[in-house]
């Protein structure tokens, strides 16, 4: 990147040369800091928060990685692999296909919308998506929430929602918002990343 590229826009944040220098100083201030710590420190320095008050940490980590890959900053080596790029291969008895369920929905009541919060449920959700969804399993981007729909007959559905993509021309044209309005209100939009009826 060259001087003419500034200000840069990454993850909805406009970056100046001063911002790059501040990031470099934060990285240099603690040679033992992890990428996670650096990201959190930068979020605090910028007062970069999500609408719920939490740090905008995932966006900051993506921003830092892009700057690192472009050569503008040098991040410390990652301490552990995040598993991105590895094929999901977990297979369990619980994830195996069951007998076909047929009949009116009333026969499946009560249905339970079960938010995925435990590791066990997370592994099951990932496995079901990987086995039976046409897109397979990949980690959902940014903020996310996942659900399993359960019934007396067993699990019926796996649904996942994630943070909206920064720019999607057809979506943005349909909504009719300006760039400024999109930046202000994008947190009100979610992506239905996966919808699987087993």
UniProtKB/TrEMBL annotation:
Location of the region described as Disordered in the Swiss-Prot/TrEMBL record: 76-96
Pfam family, one: DruA
Highest taxon of source: Bacteria
InterPro entries: DruA (IPR025639)
Record-given protein name: Uncharacterized protein
Source organism of the structure: Desulforamulus profundi
Organism phylogeny: Bacteria, Bacillati, Bacillota, Clostridia, Eubacteriales
């Amino acid at each position: 990147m060259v001087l003419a590229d500034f200000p840069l826009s990454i993850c909805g944040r406009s970056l100046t040369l001063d911002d790059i220098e501040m990031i470099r100083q934060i990285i240099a201030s603690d040679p033992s800091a992890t990428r996670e710590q650096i990201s959190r420190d930068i979020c605090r320095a910028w007062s970069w928060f999500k609408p719920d008050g939490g740090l905008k940490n995932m966006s900051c980590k993506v921003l830092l990685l892009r700057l690192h890959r472009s050569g503008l900053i040098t991040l410390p080596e990652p301490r552990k692999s995040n598993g991105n790029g590895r094929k999901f291969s977990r297979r369990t008895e619980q994830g195996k296909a069951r007998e076909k369920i047929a009949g009116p929905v009333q026969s499946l009541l009560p249905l339970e919308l079960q938010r995925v919060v435990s590791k066990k449920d997370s592994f099951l959700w990932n496995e079901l998506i990987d086995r039976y969804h046409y897109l397979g399993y990949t980690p959902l981007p940014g903020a996310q929430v996942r659900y399993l729909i359960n019934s007396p007959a067993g699990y019926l559905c796996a649904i996942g929602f994630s943070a909206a993509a920064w720019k999607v021309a057809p979506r943005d044209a349909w909504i009719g918002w300006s760039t400024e309005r999109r930046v202000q209100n994008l947190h009100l939009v979610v992506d239905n990343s996966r919808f699987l009826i087993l």
